[in-house]
Amino acid sequence: MPITFLLELMLLGSFTGCFAGLLGLGGGMMLVPFLTFMFTRQGFAPELVVHMAIATSLTTIVFTASASVRMHHSRGAVQWRTVRWLGLGALLGTFVGARVASHLHGGWLALFFGAFVGLSALRMFHGARPDAAQPVAQRLPAAPLVLAAGSAIGAISSMLGAGGGFLTVPFLRWRGVPMRNAVATSAATGLLIAIGGLIGYVSAGLDAPGLPRYAMGYVYVPALLACSATSVIAAPFGASLTHRLPVHLLQRVFSVVLLSLAGYMFLKGLHQIGWYGTGHRP
Fold this sequence. Notes:
By secondary structure, the chain is an all-alpha fold. The protein has one domain. The protein has 10 helices and 2 strands, in the order ααααααααββαα. The protein has helices spanning 3-23, 28-41, 46-74, 80-101, 106-125, 143-160, 165-174, 179-205, 221-241, 247-272, and strands at residues 215-216, 219-220. A two-stranded antiparallel ribbon has the order 1-2. It is globular.
């Protein structure tokens, strides 16, 4: 593996980690398009690059969420009773979602990512954020419904390579959970999402033909380690900048960047399924 490729992965981890700390957003939505581009440039099998980018991005959350959960737990912010059902559903949903995603054409996964993230970027640009939801005097629904909600969050996250905070936080806020506890509980749920994704994508990709060296199933280990190490270091730096920079303006810039990356993934998906750049028509 070229040393320049490893350095690029470390730089990517620093970049996404810094933005995650600065804006309170997970880096998965940024990691997936960049990893897709970098894996393609390294000559990985075209039918595997999207699966590997999503799997690797999702697995990095094991490291970043672990650090976050320890901090939130030390401050008593995690609602572990909620995590018990929401996290269990997310764990199962992510595992099943990863197994299902492994059987989907990479082009369709790229299209799903591009459409979902593109809409999220537009929503972010116009100022709608998860913390904009106001607490209401409601309680969380019964355990089976929380379990179902967690399963849905996990399944969607498994196809985006993200920790699910963009879904978990609004759900908890909608049910009246204070913002501080919602973020902390979401971090704990995200850790279980990452573990479910790790198990699901590794087991689903063990026998996949054409995997590159150092791949563990669909997870590319060098990218996992390089991005995780530098993102964990860079995230606190990004968080410290929150009080020095115009975060609202940076959020808009970030949303434009994210929209561009979503567009790249959408075109990548169209190309892979033969609807763009090959002379074919749907």
